[in-house]
Amino acid sequence: MPLTGIEIYKLLPKTNCGECGVPTCLAFAMSLAAGKAELTACPYVSDEAKAKLEEASAPPIRPVTIGVGNKAIKVGGGTVMFRHEKRFDNPPGFAILISDTMTKADIESRLERFAELQYDRVGLTLRPELVALKCDSEDTGKFETLVAKVTKQNSDCNIILVSQNPDILAAGLKVSASRKPLLYAATKDNLDRVADLAKENSCPLAVKADGLEELAQLSLRLTESGVKDIILDSGSRTLRRAFEDQIVIRRAALDKKFRPLGFPTIVFPGEMSDNPMKEAVIAATFVAKYGGLIVLSDFQGESLFPLLVERMNIYTDPQRPLATAEGIYEIGSPDENSPVLITSNFSLTYFIVSGEIENSRISSYLLVKDAEGLSVMTAWAAGKFSADVIAPFVKKCGIPERIKHRKLIIPGYIAVESGSLEEELPGWEIMVGPRDGAHIPAYLKNWKP
Q: CA 375, CA 441: separation in Å to the nearest integer?
């Protein structure tokens, strides 16, 4: 049985140092008991206490890392059922499926789409992370050749080796073991041999079963054999059944602390529909509830981009506004005579303002000031977007070195700050722009450096 918060507290050093991120050891103990913190956050806990607290400190859903280096992907680690309770940890990974029976041209085109379908949004790069390599030929040599090609050609992709034949998985590992691929999948028929491969190569392992009861039994056998990094596949291949399984697995891990189901999951929307758009809708369902890895039959921009945006939106912290990075943004190809506008770093504000500048077809510099993700009016009211905050940013951000003129266009909502800004920025002309972003194109048409 997991320890209670008070039982955990008795084993902690009781220094109340705050280095764990919470003010008291009692608060930290309660977080550990709820599965919302990790024991490693406490720098002073004794080795004896660590041993006793291992079960209590383990997250209810184990985080599992696939791949190596800064491109590795971590899935799992969730602590809540609903996003509004806290936030969802570790976004799901998207994988494109490639079979060793595909033509060379088809394989190449899929690898190209994997590499090219990347999108810059809100200062982030949205992209898929994994390539699932499936052996349909049952030919170990052919599969090994495919894996070797992908690992050599795509140095930053994470890999899933897909076969239920241990010999084929071993052949794939010959050329990819250093990349720490996910092995898919252990079943009741091959469990011991595939588990040995995972342990020998220190790779994560997916386990596939026919139903949740069998899945729990198999994952328990794997953990007892020494395999800790496990991905779960309940075997369901209809939307309704797979959706129900995801919820049951999550609830069993979080609410019941049922360790055999306390792992991230993998789903295959492409095996639930042969219609590409329906497959995308199914995938969108599992982004929200609660897929860890989502394997798609193919990538197309019109379906992948909405999935990436959905993932970004769902896995942001609901208690923190979505914010754009502070800095200078070039809209078009601005030069030393281009207009300079400034706004706050609330992402919606940035998108509206930058979009309207693009519509004007007048290349401009857009200064984005960190206002803790607040909109212009809210940030101004909170004292985070006033003259004494804006002026130092304008001086230090580097824009004076890029332009000949000294004109700054501020949002109409903070027109009251224009006088103070002229005092804070001697030699600058402060121009009051429109209050509504839709009026920016017409305003910029009258720009004169």
A: 20
Q: What single string gives the DSSP state of each residue in 261-287?
A: G-S-BEE-GGGT-S-HHHHHHHHHHHH
Map tokens 């800790």 to a residue. Answer: 228
Q: Are both 72 and 35 inside the same structural domain?
A: no
Q: Is 163 helix (H, G, I), strand (E, B) or coil?
A: coil
First-to-last C-alpha distance (Å) of the chain: 72
Distances (CA, A) of 167 to 66, 77, 137, 152, 200: 21, 31, 13, 22, 14
Q: What is the per-residue pLDDT across 8-46, written as a single tens digit (0 to 9) for each?
A: 888 888 999 988 888 999 999 888 877 677 788 888 888
Partners of 64 in beta bridges: 75
Give the total residue count for the chain. 449
Give dist(CA 284, CA 289) in Å, integer. Answer: 9
pTM for this predicted structure: 0.75
Same domain assignment for residues 170 and 49: no
**Band of pLDDT at residue 219, cut at 50, 70 and 90:** very high
**Alpha-carbon distance values, 274 to 111, 236, 271, 277, 284 (Å):** 21, 16, 7, 9, 16
Report how many domains make up the chain: 3
Cα–Cα distance measured from residue 233 to residue 264, given in angstroms and rounded to the nearest whole number: 9
Report the sign of the C-alpha dihedral through residues 222, 224, 227, 233, in that order: positive
For residue 118 the two structure tokens come to: 């990347």
Report the alpha-carbon distance of residue 128 to residue 157 in Å, rounded: 9
Q: Which two tokens stand for residue 396?
A: 């230090």
In the chain, % of residues over pLDDT 70: 97
Q: How far is CA 402 from CA 332, 356, 399, in A?
A: 15, 22, 5
Token look-up 């342990």 returns 199
Quick check: 123 pLDDT over 80?
no
Q: Which CATH number goes with the domain that contains 158?
A: 3.20.20.20
Q: 156 and 254 share a domain?
A: yes
